[in-house]
Amino acid sequence: MRALPTDGSYIFSTEENKMDFNENFILGCSAIGAGLAVIAGIGPGVGQGIAAGHAAAAVGRNPGAKSDVTSTMLLGQAVAETTGLYGLLVAMLLMFVKPLV
Amino acid sequence: MGQGILLTADNLDFMIHGVFSYTLFGQTVWITTSHVCILIIFLVLIGFFIAARVTMAKATEVPGTFQNIIELIVEKLDGMVEGVMGKWSPKFRNYIGTIFLFILLSNISGLFGLRPPTADYGTTLALGLITFTLIHYNEFKHQKVKGVIKGLCDPWPIWAPINIIGECAVPISLSLRLFANVLSGLVMTTLIYGLLGKIAVIWPAALHVYLDLFSGAIQTYVFCMLTMTYITNACTTD
């Protein structure tokens, strides 16, 4: 391993190095951004849990309506999932389509 | 990118590939794997429909196995449309039944080694736009121009831009929901097979049951349900 100059000049020693550095920097930031984007998954998780909890309570009160409650719950959960999927899509775009590079 | 992941596996591949290209009005147009998969699904569906037609032409009082299956499918789909749309159902049960079968088969086609066509935004956007067209055609047909304008200016006329944005968000959210669900399932199974390699032998079947069958069926149901709800809302005059 060769010793690097301490003043930081090694990064931008040539124009090509500079381009390289910029590209890698953007890639790294894209990966961080993708990680941050999937934090959106918290919301649907909480929401689906609440829906499932209320559905369980409803089945407890009225066991006869179990199939109706289940299908309504699944429909609502699938719709609630959308916001999390938007976050996932943003992460996918950042990781695989690389719009910023 | 991809480098980080691709270092460990070279066979990770869930992208759409071009099969061949041709030039149309100076633009290069690609026929992709999605088109091929859609074509295969169409052929399967058309074959099934022709077989159903032939069987139902000489339907018997005591149904055979295939006739039983067809009757079951048609009854379930009709019942679903009837339950949501009520008196508007006779006009739409053909359309809803067709897109239900198409989306269902597309979503579970990952099981048969195809790349699901619904994991291509072009397909789902087309489906969403058909729904959008149907909603607004029926809105104009049943509520007339006056009703549509009244609906846009719902609380006050100043609300109209927001209502218009809300209307335009319908096909986008419909199509993105279906697309992202199928794509996430595809990516997850690809990652499992690509990264775990030889360890991924029999147990990924459980993942397929959840990601392909369950998720695909639920999303098909949701898409058809929302389409029916929107169309019923557009048809209903109050």
Report on the architecture of this protein.
With 101 residues, chain A is an all-alpha fold. Chain A has a single domain (15-97), classed as F1FO ATP Synthase (Up-down Bundle), CATH 1.20.20. Chain A has helices spanning 15-37, 42-61, 66-80, 82-97. In chain A, helix 1 runs antiparallel to helix 4 (82-97) and helix 2 (42-61) packs antiparallel against helix 3. Chain A is rod-shaped. The model of chain A has no long low-confidence stretch (mean pLDDT 85). Chain B is mainly α and 238 residues long. Chain B has one domain (3-115, 123-235). Chain B has helices at residues 3-6, 33-57, 65-85, 89-107, 121-152, 160-196, 204-235; strands at 18-24, 27-32. Chain B has a two-stranded antiparallel sheet with strand order 1-2. In chain B, strand 1 (18-24) and strand 2 form a beta hairpin. The longest helix of chain B is centred in the last third of the chain and has 37 residues, at 160-196. The N and C termini of chain B lie far apart (54 Å). The relative contact order of chain B is 0.13. Chains A and B meet through helix 1, helix 3 and helix 4 of A and helix 6 and helix 7 of B.
What is the element layout, followed by pairings?
The complex is a heterodimer of chains A (101) and B (238).
Chain A (H helix, E strand, L loop, with lengths): L14 H23 L4 H20 L4 H15 L1 H16 L4
Chain B lengths: L2 H4 L11 E7 L2 E6 H25 L7 H21 L3 H19 L13 H32 L7 H37 L7 H32 L3
Antiparallel strand pairs in B: 1-2
Helix pairs in contact in B: 2-4, 3-4, 4-7, 5-6, 5-7, 6-7
E-strand count of chain B: 2
DSSP, total strands of chain A: 0
Whole-number count of domains of chain B: 1
Tell me the structural class of chain A.
mainly alpha
- The percentage of residues in β strands of chain A lies in under 5%
